[in-house]
Amino acid sequence: MRAARDRPADGFRARRRFGQHFLHEGALIERIVAAVDPRPDQAIVEIGPGRGALTLPLLRLCGELTAIEIDHDLCEHLRRAALGAGTLHLVNEDVLSVDFATLAGGPRRLRIVGNLPYNISTPLLFRILGQLRHVEDVHCTLQREVAQRIGAAPGSKHYGRLSVMVQLDCRVEGLFPIAAAAFRPRPQVESAFLRLVPRPEVSVAPEERAAFSELVRHLFSRRRKTLKSALRGHMGEEHIVQAGCEPASRPQELSVADFARLAAQWSECRHVRSSRESASAPAAPRD
Ligand code: SAM
Q: What topology does CATH give the domain 2-198?
């Protein structure tokens, strides 16, 4: 029974461990490809091409693309299917181990497209965020709840660590919903199609990134507390006020800019604490 459900019309058996759900509606595929709007001179990278639902129309429009697919059998199928459509560079690897800098290999930044495997979508997004200097934009299909979290505004129940970490570096555009019925086999969840565009300006300096990420994680694991209480032992009320925030407010009310200013105070206070600790530590005995 299960095998039949996992088998699309042409007999290919979808592998659940790779999150395989294949798009099959022509109108939807056209809508996705139109939103990407691929051009021949661009460096397009598709993550998880599957049986080529997006790959082949993209390839016909841009003439050349790189696709990263973990499933060896699908790679064989795609190589044959792409003959005559354009130049397809297939990378048969786990995308979580692919170095996007090597893929870019020049001045062109990557346009990343993917109907992403849901089981790895969050680690994959963080991996892409870590290599954004090589990325022009990202168009991706995600589980609806993940898409809602990414695009959520402060105060919304969906707003959290993922929203802040993505919005720090990217403008997020929710493009359209995708129903579960658009896939074979049909997933248990609804989906949404998103565009992420890296921001040209750097709002947190590279050396402050670790503190920013640590603070965001710290606060969202205490999201019901006030800032004053959640930050006790790390910074005083006066530092919260200096960051332009209200000590009685709660983490989910803060904007990305608020987090950035608080992170600067967080690392400043830590620096002061560690200088005090080393000044008060007993001197090492002399020989
Ligand atoms: N793009 C196709 C479509 O829209 O019909 C397939 C999408 S399917 C949801 C996800 C695809 O990602 C599958 O082909 C799967 O084998 C591939 N995949 C899953 N995990 C992967 C990984 N870690 N690295 C690369 N590809 C992966």
A: Rossmann fold (3.40.50)
